[in-house]
Amino acid sequence: MSFRPNAEQIEKLKRIGAATLHEAQGQTGALDSGLKPLDAGLRLAGTAFTVDCRAHDNLAIHLAVTMAGPGDILVVDAKGFIEAGPWGDILTLGAQKRGIAGLVIDGAVRDSEEIIAMRFPVFARGLSIKGTLKAQPGRIGAPVICGGQQIRTGDIIVGDRDGLVVVRPERLDEVLTAAAAREEAERRMRERLEAGETTLEILGLEPALKRLGMI
């Protein structure tokens, strides 16, 4: 993993948020909306550290926690399986002790109340009280499919109440610049709305409405 965003870039990514970043990179990179935050008040941003594990088995996840670095986000392809929770409060504590910044898992977690109390950002497809085995092989650091997106170790993951987006590290500066321009455009739009204009006027939507016979 050769590139890591610096602390200033991480805070900027958190502030900008997933939706604006998705728009800023041409409406690409969104993970599917089935992945939900355990605590919608927490924001997540960092470099992905990928894990490919078997459904109903978390052996590879335990290994990944020992290998990931401070600021990494564990991104786990658990095959969308939600009838067992391969992540819970014990792994959360282990991850926090190593400086891991969050978890995105295409699968389920358990011990959700404890994880929320620990203020560890987690995005998951579901919750399950059932435990998993620790007996099957997996892959660490290889590209995975999570939430319908291919994610590589070193990609940048941003998540908040609205959802998750992946940003390729080689595009980070470009995307941040486009996001800043989008924020400025939205600021000007709010000023025009405050001054009494409508979104129809600002966005030039009346011709389309007339063409469709709606006005």
UniProtKB/TrEMBL annotation:
Annotated substrate binding sites: G88, D89, I90, L91, R110
Keyword Ligase: no
One Pfam entry name: RraA-like
Transmembrane segments: none
Signal peptide: none
Glycosyltransferase is among the record's keywords: no
Keyword line: Lyase, Magnesium, Metal-binding
GO molecular function, one term: lyase activity
Residues that, per the record, bind Mg(2+): D111
Cofactor(s) needed for function: Mg(2+); a divalent metal cation
UniProt cross-references to NCBIfam families, sorted A to Z: PRK09262.1
PANTHER family (alphabetical): 4-HYDROXY-4-METHYL-2-OXOGLUTARATE ALDOLASE 3-RELATED
Protein name: Putative 4-hydroxy-4-methyl-2-oxoglutarate aldolase
Species this chain originates from: Pseudogemmobacter humi
Gene: proA_1
